[in-house]
Structures are given as structure tokens and as C-alpha cells.
Write a structure and sequence with these properties.
By secondary structure, the protein is α+β, with helices and mostly antiparallel strands. It contains five helices and five strands, in the order αββαβαββαα.
């Protein structure tokens, strides 16, 4: 629970940014964030203070600099509603203009933290295929909000230069 508490503090910038939960409730301020932490600890499937299991996942849904932040937020909301129905989650929009961090990211992005144990007791156990499905689901939600978005697997996002074969010059036959 300590890690989840730290995460909620971080993404809300210690209560300065609005958190939106799975019910659309807006949480703002240190006291409200503390109440959310208590709800996650004790509500639904309780989280032990010293659990050795992963009790939450943190996703960052990010877009390029000139992307409309409100469209990113709406797409993240739609994606989370579809993908994580029956789970508690908290999401926060970070923009260059609104993030109180001294060095904010220029990319609009949404931090999405999802409690692993669902309200029905089932646990999320994502695999690589799930991560790709999440990427595709977010891209689809972006397109629904007028943002051109495609998704690629990690191997296609890297540059091919890393795998370029370089031949060493033949060693000199002298000496």
C-alpha cells in the first residue's frame, strides 16, 4: 500500500492536480487524496500494508506535444471505462501548462493507476498480448476523439540502426 500511496501522491502532485476515479468523481486536495488512499486500502478487496504481491498497475498514456490535452484525457477516460470496468482506478491529466512540477513534460499524458483486485475478487494479470491490446484500445479511443493514432509493437518503434551489421576492415597483412 505504501507504493500505491506514493503513486497517488505523485500523479496528483500532492493533491494539486485533479484525480478522476472510475465513477467519474473528481478528487482534489491532500485530504481528498488521503480519503482515496483509505478507500483503496480498505474498500473492495482490501490491500495489506506489507503485501508482497503487485496490488496496482501504473500506465502512462502519452501523446506528442501538439496533441489536444482534453482529447487525450477523454480518450483515456473512454479507454479505462472499457478496459477496466469492475476495477478501481485513478487517472490524472498532466500538461505542460498545468503540471506544477518544475520541469513538466511537454507531452500531454494521463497517468492511470489501476487496482489489480477487481470488485468481484478477480485479479488482473496482464501479459504481453494484453499490453498490446491496451495500446490498441487507447489508439482506438484517440481516433474516436479526432486524434490520428496508430499503434505498433515495441520492436517496430525502435530504430533499425541498433541492428545494423558493421564489418570491420580487414586486418593488415603487414606485421
Amino acid at each position: 500500500m505504501r507504493g500505491i500511496s506514493n503513486n497517488l501522491t505523485y500523479i496528483s502532485r500532492d493533491g494539486e492536480l485533479e484525480i478522476e476515479d472510475q465513477d467519474g468523481q473528481v478528487i482534489l486536495g491532500k485530504e481528498a487524496v488521503a480519503d482515496l488512499k483509505s478507500e483503496w486500502r480498505d474498500g473492495g478487496m482490501p490491500i495489506a500494508a506489507d503485501s508482497t504481491m503487485r496490488d496496482a498497475f501504473h500506465l502512462v498514456l502519452s501523446m506528442p506535444t501538439r496533441t489536444d490535452p482534453l482529447s487525450v484525457q477523454r480518450a483515456a477516460r473512454d479507454f479505462a471505462t472499457r478496459e477496466f470496468a469492475g476495477f478501481q482506478y485513478a487517472m490524472v491529466l498532466h500538461t505542460f501548462e498545468t503540471d506544477p512540477d518544475p520541469h513538466p513534460s511537454p507531452h500531454p499524458h494521463v497517468h492511470l493507476t489501476v487496482k489489480v483486485a477487481g470488485l468481484d475478487g478477480m485479479r488482473l494479470n496482464p501479459r504481453k498480448a494484453d499490453l498490446q491490446r491496451w495500446r490498441e484500445g487507447f489508439a482506438e479511443a484517440l481516433r474516436e476523439h479526432g486524434i490520428e493514432a496508430t499503434t505498433t509493437s515495441r520492436i517496430h518503434r525502435t530504430t533499425h540502426e541498433r541492428w545494423t551489421v558493421r564489418h570491420l576492415p580487414e586486418p593488415s597483412k603487414k606485421g
